[in-house]
Design a protein that fits this description.
This protein has 8 helices and 10 strands. By secondary structure, the protein is α/β, with parallel strands linked by helices. A hairpin with a 4-residue loop joins β5 and β6.
């Protein structure tokens, strides 16, 4: 993993880039940067582990679908996230060449990352970086998606196979519980969003 090459590639694609040695440093940075705003979260294990809801909600209005108690509540809060001033999420994979990849089941996470906010933050740990776009897509499908499915203990072939063999693998299944229904490749910063910042954390986190 070439971190300097990745940063340079992201900047060439018009992203602002910040890099931190630890999630604690990144959380402090974001807490200082985001103040008095409406904030929406995508469903991200990295953001959950950083406890950003607890930090930011003391001086912002924060909507986090993971604060819901059921699926109806999740969807209601997720809809509010689409209209906030600031949006934070992560990605399933990133290429050293600057592309990022996300897979989504419901669509709220990728929808919020594309349009409608003053600023978007992608909070990404460096274990998700791959040499090129092809390998990044492979990681999103064969590492991140099965791990996310395993988190919910879904009856999908990737989970069943992992429990039996320990192998992470996508089966492109037809199960109704499947969570990899859409895939988005961010080729460069979207137009008409004032600023999109990639916050890199040089530590293994998330899926």
């Amino acid at each position: 993993m070439d971190l300097n090459k990745t940063i340079e590639s992201l900047e060439q694609k018009l992203y602002k880039v910040s890099c931190f040695a630890s999630p604690e440093e990144a959380a402090e940075y974001l807490d200082g940067r985001i103040d008095g705003k409406t904030v929406g979260f995508g469903d991200s294990r990295t953001i959950i582990d950083m406890k950003l809801y607890d930090k930011l909600s003391t001086h912002n209005t924060v909507y986090d679908p993971n604060q819901s108690v059921d699926n109806d509540g999740f969807l209601e809060i997720a809809a509010k996230c689409l209209t906030t001033e600031v949006y934070l999420t992560s990605v399933n994979a990133m290429a050293e060449t600057g592309e990022m990849v996300n897979i989504d089941g419901t669509g709220n996470r990728v929808a919020g990352s594309l349009f409608g906010h003053e600023k978007i933050y992608f909070v990404v740990s460096t274990n998700k970086i791959e040499p090129d776009l092809e390998k990044a897509v492979w990681r999103a499908r064969n590492v991140a998606a099965p791990k996310n499915s395993l988190k919910y203990d879904l009856p999908t072939p990737c989970v069943i196979n992992y429990k039996r063999t320990g192998e992470l693998k996508c089966f492109d299944c037809r199960r109704p519980e499947r969570i990899c229904n859409g895939i988005i490749t961010y080729l460069r910063k979207m137009n008409d969003i004032d600023e999109v910042e990639v916050v890199l954390i040089d530590e293994e986190m998330g899926f």
